[in-house]
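Encode chain A's predicted structure.
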Amino acid sequence: MSQSNGRQPGRDPERHRGAVTLRRGAIPSSTADQRLLDSSGRGDWKTKDAWRALRILSEFVEGFDTLADLPPAVSVFGSARSKPESPECRLAEELGAALARAGYAVITGGGPGVMEAANRGASEAGGLSVGLGIELPFEQGLNDWVDLAIDFRYFFARKTMFVKYAQAFVVLPGGFGTMDELFEALTLVQTGKVTRFPVVLMGQAYWQGLLDWLRDTMAADGKIGPVDLELICVTDDVDAAVRHIVEAEAALSAEQEAVREESVARTGEDQRAAAEATPEPERTRGSAGGRVTRPGGEV
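Encoded structure for chain A:
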């Protein structure tokens, strides 16, 4: 009988730091985000932050390069702490499958709970299941239903990928991280940074208190306009959620096509107007010293 060295394969903590995986004693006590945002270490900014800038750039390059060929996709958010048998996990799995059948890839944070359920639904339905992981002090690791995964050090690089490569957000019950993604999406739409970007809340009972506060406090006090509340679609019907996303994409495509046709028509009109305004060139005959024909006769 062999002696145990105290390690339990598959159970030891591990942290993903970009392409690097760290386990046990190799795991540092802080994350890249913590070190970047810690203002107490200003003395080393000149020597270390320049290198951090290159690392940040590399995360954007890696994300853009990996996701550039992604089909139309929907980002799904929700709690990593939700249990597999919870209502939100069952809803997320149904949603992931429905989105896959509608031709969308499903993007999540790649963790457990609601994220795993959405990835599983998409994968089992034959769709592409994407996980964008993040380095955290309490590392969760990527769930087994992710087909395409990227591990990020920096939240802001990861959040850019969630928005850039998705046609919509679907937000299920979750905590601070879920709220962060929800309100960032709403801010981007409200300020016109993204156009016609559907934001769907599922789990109406969970969100009702927040929705009441947005209407009765935030909107009533003039901090947002009544029209801003219309940016949110609330439903517990998976088919209705998918239909809302499909219809928004179709409406945006129709608008873009109308703009393109109008631009082509305007360019044609401008070209015709320019041609009509240009006088006909005078006709000449012969060489220097020969006769020149002008309007009104020979000279």
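Helices lie at 32-37, 45-67, 87-101, 114-124, 155-164, 176-190, 204-219, 238-277.
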